[in-house]
Amino acid sequence: MWIHEHQNWPNFIWDTKALASKLASIRHRQGRLLGRMEGLGFELKREASLKTLTNDVVKSSAIEGENLNPEEVRSSIARKLGIDVAGLIPTSRDVEGIVEIMLDATQQFAKPLTKDRLFGWHAALFPTGRSGMHKISVGGWRTIDAGAMQVVSGPIGKEKVHFEAPSAERLEKEMGSFLEWLADYDDETDPVIKAGIAHLWFVTIHPFEDGNGRIARAISDMILTRADKTPDRFYSLSSQIETERKAYYNHLEAQQRATPDITNWLSWFLDCLDGAISNAETTLSHVLFKAHLWDTINQKPVTDRQRHVINYMLEDDFEGFMNTSKYAKLAKCSNDTALRDIQELKERGLFIQNPGRGRSTSYRLPEPKKS
User: Fold this and answer.
1) Which parts of 39-138 fold into alpha helices (H)?
2) Residue 132: its pLDDT value, please?
């Protein structure tokens, strides 16, 4: 029996006492993180929010096996929010669609979530009316003609059905109940708990032929944004879910095979959100370190070559250390010029030489100060 076939569906219950400690810790850490962010200047807040939104979009798609170009996503978000950042590049329709959904969910978080709004999100996600090679119903609930909606894995002939969603005939009533519950602002359920319930409820109904996971995560983000009372995003739930993707699907399947007692699902959801906030604190430390480093550098400006290399080393995906040949290649200069640049940065304390000499000589940026 699937959860939606249970006689008490969708009257969810959970053990409030069992979740109280985790929920209190998360609410405290949320408040602490938002308080630290409020203390930043406008530019730093904007940079942190842009980084978080970019990660959210990229990772939500990665969970479904779709790999988006992070620079395209960043460029699309920056343009839509009017953020003036360097290095903007053209973006594809696929990127534009998921970015539109995420921004509508978080920047317009106070707007009611309606059927038409959901249809708009779905249409933005599939601008060609196709999911891969397959034509699908876009901007509407899945139809009877689409057949049973099953989550299946394994080779042909040996398929394993992980879940089967409610039939298409039930969707109007099921989604009506879901949207009515979501619009109940007098509901005393904590918004963090509500975000976890909404995620499970929506993916269980599975109202669309495709895109249900990404839209469910957008709904969770919308509810969490309401809880934070600010459109600025500083933690990425989707990034953490992508990190724990196997556990995510295991917990979903376990709950969808169980009863409407969703204590176990909510416990995992809270742990996942806690991880997202921990990662956000790391991101904040990195943003503050970058700001402090550039404040120090700008007291005596560096050359364009040096600035380019330092910015490269500050990127999240930079690995290893800097050496003369790598510097020369990045800065498009000779090895002699690279060595002089490096020595200047070393004398100013902006480059730290690692142990090792000769061809093994390498450099790193100074360590961020512990907060």
Assistant:
1) 42-63, 70-81, 93-107, 115-125
2) 79
Q: Are 86 and 311 in contact (CB under 8 A)?
A: no
Both tokens assigned to 221: 């983000």
Residue 201 is assigned to a structural domain of this protein:
yes
3-state secondary structure of 88: coil
**Are 278 and 350 in a shared domain?**
no
Q: Number of C-alpha atoms within 13 angstroms, CB side, residue 187?
A: 15
Query: Beta 134-135 vs 150-153: how paired, if at all?
Result: unpaired
Distance CA 156, CA 152 (A): 10
Residue 108 is classified by DSSP as T
The model carries a pTM of 0.84
Report the C-alpha gap between 175 and 204 in whole angstroms: 11
Q: Which domain holds residue 127?
A: 3-283
DSSP strand E in the chain: where? 130-131, 134-135, 150-153, 160-164, 352-353, 363-364
Domain count, the chain: 2
For the record, the structure tokens of 290 come out as 């970058």
Residue bearing tokens 């003036």: 84
350 close to 297: Cβ distance less than 8 angstroms: yes
- Rounded CA gap, 289 and 48, in Å? 12
pLDDT in tens, 207-257: 999 999 999 999 999 999 999 999 999 999 999 999 999 999 999 999 999
The beta-strand segments (E) located in 166-207 are none
Longest dimension (CA), the chain: 77
Separation in Å, CA 222 to CA 108, 110, 112, 157:
8, 8, 10, 40
H/E stretch holding 213 reads helix 212-228
Please state the φ and ψ torsions of residue 2, each to the nearest 5 degrees: -85, 160
